[in-house]
Amino acid sequence: MPTFKRGRATPDADAADVAELSAEEAEALAAAAEAEAAAARARANVLKVQQAKAEREAEREPEVHDEVSGAEDEVAEKDTGDAGAAGDSAPLTPAAPRRRRLATAARYAAVCLAVIAIAALASTSAWIVVKHRQAEHQRDLAAQFSAAARQGVVSLMSLDFNRAKDDVQRIVDNSTGQFREDFQAQAEEFAKVAESSKVVTEANVTATAVQTMTEDTADVLVAAASTITNAQGAKDDPRSWRLIVSMARDGDQIKMAKVEFAP
Questions:
Q1: Where among 65, 92, 119 does a domain terminate?
Q2: SS3 15
Q3: What are residue 242's phi and psi, to 5 degrees?
Q4: Is 149 within the bounds of a domain?
Q5: Which domain covers residue 46, as residue numbers?
Q6: How far apart, in Å, are the Cα atoms of 55 and each of 77, 81, 103?
Q7: Same domain for 150 and 250?
Q8: Contact 228, 237 (CB under 8 A)
Q9: Three-class HEC string of 172-202
Q10: Counting Cβ atoms within 10 Å, is residue 158 exposed (0-12), middle (13-18) or buried (19+)?
């Protein structure tokens, strides 16, 4: 058991006292010193986390609190040893909230502009698709009326006295409305005139153009040429015609509803 002498303490005496400490006492002192050092490091890390948090809040809108807490734990695990630097950090300025509001407003405006641009693009694309389909439908409809008018004029202007009744019936079959009724009322007499005149006409259509059109009706300008042979001396005499043919739907067919000679 070590003994201590009374008297004035000297450096040599202190060194002798330390040397006389037991191993257990030395270990206890070392553990206490290490605990104090760990506490100092922890305080320094907490101050550094607080500084980082303040800087992030000054630059952007605050994130979810759980993410901030996680960031503090991550930084606290690192041994930076720089407690003073955290204490010297600059506080948030009064302009920070204003910068955050401006940043938030800018992001909101950007999102709104993006939504408007996407909506405008979608509307434009839809409008283009609709217009394209409408144009295709109009072209198909015009082609249908033109083809029907071509066939109607050929039937109307082609006649052979050897089969006059059949030709007249073909004209009736390609007609509708008032035009059909008027022509059918004179069909028998028309066939007799053709037979007595020994008339033969052949016609072909050279051009068509739709002037006006709806879903069920159209006025078609038709240019046609024909040759005529008859008992009066005509021998394949050429003729040129310009007709305005009104077409109308009759069931699932398009037929002649009116025929006029164009000037």
A1: 92
A2: helix
A3: -130, 120
A4: yes
A5: 22-92
A6: 20, 20, 15
A7: yes
A8: yes
A9: HHCECHHHHHHHHHCHHHHHHHHHHHCCEEE
A10: middle
Asked if 208 contacts 217 with a C-beta cutoff of 8 angstroms, the reply is no
Residue 42 contacts residue 76 (beta carbons within 8 Å): yes
H or E element: which one contains 243? strand 237-250
The rounded distance, in Å, linking the Cα atoms of 168 and 206 is: 23
| Type of residue found at 180 | R
Name residues whose C-beta falls within 8 Å of residue 161's C-beta, 6 or more positions apart in sequence.
Answer: 194, 195, 197, 198, 199, 200
What phi and psi, each to the nearest 5 degrees, are found at residue 200? -135, 120
Q: Which amino acid is at 129?
A: V
pLDDT in tens, the chain (263 residues): 444 334 444 444 444 444 444 555 656 666 665 666 666 566 556 566 666 666 666 665 544 444 545 544 554 455 444 444 444 444 445 566 777 777 777 777 777 777 787 877 777 878 888 888 888 999 999 999 999 999 999 999 999 999 999 999 999 999 999 999 999 999 899 899 989 989 999 999 999 999 999 999 999 999 999 999 988 888 888 999 999 999 999 988 999 999 998 87
The domain total for the chain is 2
Do residues 219 and 188 make contact, with C-beta atoms less than 8 angstroms apart?
A: no
| 138, two tokens | 């109009």
Is 243:262 a contact under the CB 8 Å cutoff? yes
In a domain, 65, yes or no: yes
Count Cβ atoms within 10 A of the Cβ of residue 165 and give its class: 0-12 exposed, 13-18 middle, 19 or more buried: middle
How remote is the C-alpha of 14 from its chain's centroid? 88
